[in-house]
């Protein structure tokens, strides 16, 4: 296994790049998957709130091997518990992944690191499914 895979946070370029991915992810979500965006606290224009975007960015930074600020502020992510109140089916999982893939493309995340992250995020999104379909 190469070093690219060991610490994705560093390979991506650190916090600024990860925050750009998170920002673009939510912009794509508001534009292309408004039903998915509405599952989050939103501004009147349909964009996901800045607080929600920041919370996700902190989670994503930690998940990628960067600083564990999310854990310090919010505790363990407990993703299944936090998403239990939202029915997540295959269509929702796929919509989430489409947004993430577009955000990666916008930030030129490709090659080995792109493929690695795509697989890991697909596994994570599938793990959060809690409804048939």
Walk me through what this model shows.
The protein has 133 residues and is an all-alpha fold. The chain has one domain (10-127): Orthogonal Bundle (Globin-like), CATH 1.10.490.10. The chain contains nine helices and no strands. The chain has helices at residues 3-6, 8-12, 15-32, 34-37, 50-63, 69-74, 79-83, 90-106, 111-127. Helix 3 (15-32) crosses helix 5 (50-63). It is globular.
Structural topology:
Blueprint: H1 3-6, H2 8-12, H3 15-32, H4 34-37, H5 50-63, H6 69-74, H7 79-83, H8 90-106, H9 111-127
Strand residues, percent: under 5%
CATH architecture: Orthogonal Bundle
Poorly predicted parts: none
SSE pattern, N- to C-terminal: HHHHHHHHH
Rg estimate, integer Å: 14 Å
Structural class: mainly alpha
- CATH third-tier fold name: Globin-like
Indicate how many domains the architecture comprises.
1
TL;DR of this structure?
By secondary structure, the chain is mainly α. 68% of the residues lie in helices and 0% in strands. The longest helix has 18 residues, at 15-32.
Features of the shown structure:
68% helix, mainly alpha, 9 helices, Globin-like, globular, 133 residues
